[in-house]
Amino acid sequence: MSQDHSRYSRLANITKMINMKLDLREVMEQVTLAISEEIMRCDSVGIYLPQPDGTFRGYVGKPEIINGRTLDMHVIDTHYDRLAKEVIETKKTIYIPDTSKDNRPDPRAVEAFKIKSLLALPISYEGELFGLVFLFDYGTPMNLTEDEIQAVEAYVNMAAVAIQNATNLTKKEKLLNEKQLLLDVSRDLSMYTTLQECFDSCFFYIQRVLDNPNIGVHLLDPIAQKRIRPARLSKDSDWTEEKWLETHKELDFDENTDALVQEVVQTKTYIFIPDVFKDPRPDHNLCRNFGIYGLVMFPIITMGEVLGQISIVTLEEKAPLYTESQLQLTQSIIDTMASALSHLLYMEKQDIIIEERTSEVLEKNKELQHVVSELQHLSREKELILNSAGEGIFGLDLHRNITFCNPAGALMLGYQSESELIGKSVHVIMNGQTIEREATTDTNDSYFEEYKVFYRKDCSTFPVEYVTAHIKENQEIVGEVITFKDISQRKQLEEKIKYYAYFDSLTDLPNRVLLMDRITQGLKYAKKNEEKAAILFLDLDRFKVVNDSLGHSYGDLLLKEVATRLMTCVPEGATVSRQGGDEFTIFLPLVKDEGAILKVIKCIDAVFDEPFQLHQHEMYIKTSIGISLFPENGETAEVLIKNADTAMYKSKERPGTSFHFFSEEMDIRSYETIRIENDLYRAIEKNELYLHYQPQINYKTDQIVGVEALLRWNHPEHGFIPPDRFIPLAEETGLIVPIGEWVLRTACTQMKKWHDDGLKLPSLSVNLSVHQFEHQELFKTIECILSDTGLAPEYLELELTENLIVKNTVQTLQTMEKLQSLGIKIAIDDFGTGYSSLGYLRNLPISKLKIDKSFVDLMVKDDAAITNTIITLAQNLSLEVIAEGVETKEQADYLLQQDCFLMQGYYFSRPIPPEEIYTKYA
Which Pfam families does UniProt cross-reference here (predicted)? Predict the structure, then answer.
């Protein structure tokens, strides 16, 4: 008992450390310390954690230095250590008392440390492997007993819980950090106006994720769009951008024929190559010249088009092993950058085109003037027409009348021939727009107009860019020649790019950028005028089912239809935006009261009641809505959207279209749940848990036939906490196993005390949870408790839920048979609420069925058919039957008439302390 108490204290201390979220290494050190103190004959205890390359490296242990090497220098390779491999595959403990008779351990380690005996255990929880534990000697066998091995396993189980908690916390923090990082990327990119700013921001965030500054971007040439060329290099790279570009030229490297670049462009997915010289796709000569050993290449894609690719290279022989989540996050950063980059590239392209076209036109005018001076005998009209190259050209005299026009110009202006324009005022083309300016004596006198509109014959307009040059004779201006180009397609493309910078390409709703702008402006107005505003955050329920079952094209159709229906439900001035995926946001800028919001929600509810017709498929989709109000729930767009999102998740808890207004209690409730969970870890240690016992009565004889042990918690701050509030938390956290063991030991101790004091109760009922029953040490734990307390097994009755029994029939039957072999009785609790069948009941070693309180409540009010059936079933199978939740004499009398005379409930007694059981029934 002293050893068990010491072990329990250690386990409780480790549980406390886990709950306090101390450093994982400190917890692991306590585990190894506890094991070494428990197993005195063990010379070495080591905990090994998995590595990315598949090996297991030492983490903590005793002693910290073995054969002159620290523990973290020791690596377990499953290629040599077949014992470790078997433990990993089976997730079972393996004890080798004599290594000379077993060839599974790594022979190198056995020889180096003179190991005679060895114990290997998996650190696993709920089927997931977190590491390995090894105990071994230095020449003197440990001769471990079964109890000692079980003790080690108990500590290792605590290590698994600690690692899982640390892993889950790390995952949560990582998800939050990644979400915030992408928000930061979107915010930063929305403010940049140059390519360099865009790339510097992207490089900064990529380096932050991958911890590698050697980042280069290759883009489609803004003029020759099919050619990919090196464009920018990170300023923190080990290379300079000048040397980087120069090396590309020296090696005559052509990205457009490189297999790796083309694979990224065609597949539109990233490629990660840890060792370039083991992969045939990279250009090995190029890699050697750049000093590249590892490479990851990402496509830059926007609106389905590839703009180029970004490469992150490793200039050291050992390439980092990037995780899939790191690579996906990097791709998300690049995708976020792509839309901003597309717009900037287009503007750069237009600048280049304009610059080149201006230069060409000016050069052309120079050539024309040169020809005029050499061919004065030709008319100026013929001279200009001969030198036109498909662009529109017309001439003006000093009175602004058209003197000539080339065929291309007449066609653009909608005339059948140039003769229709001759002699007419330039007003028919310019419609009053002025293009006059003071004359100069410069022979190269000309000027460029980037954007105007010209009028066609039918009075329609089209955008142009044009160059005007003076026509001179003997240094005197005699007229003008205008060369122009139709830029309608370019202007349309500019408008399209501008549109998709602020609108969702699928639904044509405002995107997040435009939404944030409208919310910001709306909140400024609301604050200035002391008005209210509201944010509605919507998420479609079961949208993933549509994509998975019908395909993404059907999902796109659904999103378009949802957008259309939502637009019909909002008042003028409101904004409906698609956030991405299946999330939508509605901004109501001027809200008088909640009634205005409820009107919108009522409309949404109505339009979602109608089925969505997706081609030949008809789908019913609901939405969950969260609402935040300005200024009550926040004064910025970010805070209001976050709080509406929080309220939306509250709505997710209810089926069908539902909504919740945000309240501070939503965050407070989550915080209180966490506090209760944390306090539960300390409840056993602080003696806050206790047992009450509810009598089980033979109504026919009015005699007590047993008691059921019921767990209670008296919290020092919150007082009595109902079991239905803290037991689910114990189930979720795994604490139900040590708590359940405490309940069983405490109840058996009390039962033995009653017997010793003269109260010979026939039966003690104790509930077993799913986690307890599935625990591999359950049978040994119960056997040990009965031995320690001195209680005979025939006085103990274990209650199992119906769903637990059918969960794993073979394993369940084996465990139940072992318990029955000890003499323990087994009852099915809450019978009729689960999924049992007569086949299971015939085969299971059970002795009693327990009728659930819900059937007893219905028995005399509405329908007694289920209760009567259970009683008849038990009688036919020669099983005892007991009804719980009996609260009235009417219920008790009815059960007795149906030949069910074993009962418990408030009609007989509430659950009471053990001393009242003794005084009342002794």
Answer: EAL (PF00563), GAF (PF01590), GAF_2 (PF13185), GGDEF (PF00990), PAS_9 (PF13426)
* Residue pLDDT, tens place only, 817-853: 888 999 999 998 877 665 445 556 777 888 888 988 8
N- to C-terminal Cα separation, the chain: 30
Q: What stretch of H or E contains 563?
A: helix 552-567
**492 phi/psi in degrees, rounded to 5:** -65, -40
**Whole-number Å distance between alpha carbons of 467 and 484:** 6
Count of domains in the chain?
5
Please check whether residues 608 and 683 belong to one and the same domain: no
Burial class (CB in 10 A: 0-12, 13-18, 19+), 98: exposed
DSSP 665-691: HHHHHHHHHHHHHHHHHHHTTTT-EEE
Is the pTM here over 0.85, yes or no?
Answer: no
Residues 456 and 566 in one domain: no
Q: How many CA atoms lie within 13 A of 715 on its CB side?
A: 16
One domain, residues 418 and 341? no
Residue 870 in this model has a pLDDT that exceeds 80? yes
* Token pair belonging to 322: 């990037």
552-567 and 543-550 helices, crossing angle to 10°: 140
480 forms beta bridges with 396, 470
825-831 and 848-851 as β-strands: parallel, antiparallel, unpaired? parallel
More confident residue, 807 or 897: 897
Q: Do 476 and 601 reside in the same domain of the chain?
A: no
Question: How many angstroms separate the CA atoms of 813 and 890, rounded?
Answer: 38
641, 543 Cβ separation under 8 angstroms: no
Q: Which residues pair with 215 in a beta bridge?
A: 312
Q: Are residues 715 and 838 in the same domain?
A: yes
Domain that holds residue 407: 386-431+445-491
58 C-beta neighbours (distance < 10 Å), count: 21
Q: Are strands 118-125 and 94-96 parallel, antiparallel or unpaired?
A: antiparallel
In a domain, 674, yes or no: no
Residue 58, strand partner residues: 48
Give 821: exposed, middle or buried? Use CB within 10 Å, 0-12, 13-18, 19+: exposed
Cβ atoms of residues 49 and 31 within 8 Å: no
- Residues 618, 577, single domain; the answer is yes
Asked if residues 265 and 246 have their Cβ atoms less than 8 Å apart, the reply is no
**Domain at 654, CATH number:** 3.30.70.270
Q: What is the mean pLDDT of the chain?
A: 81
186 to 216, 326, 340, 447, 703: CA distances (angstroms): 21, 18, 9, 41, 74
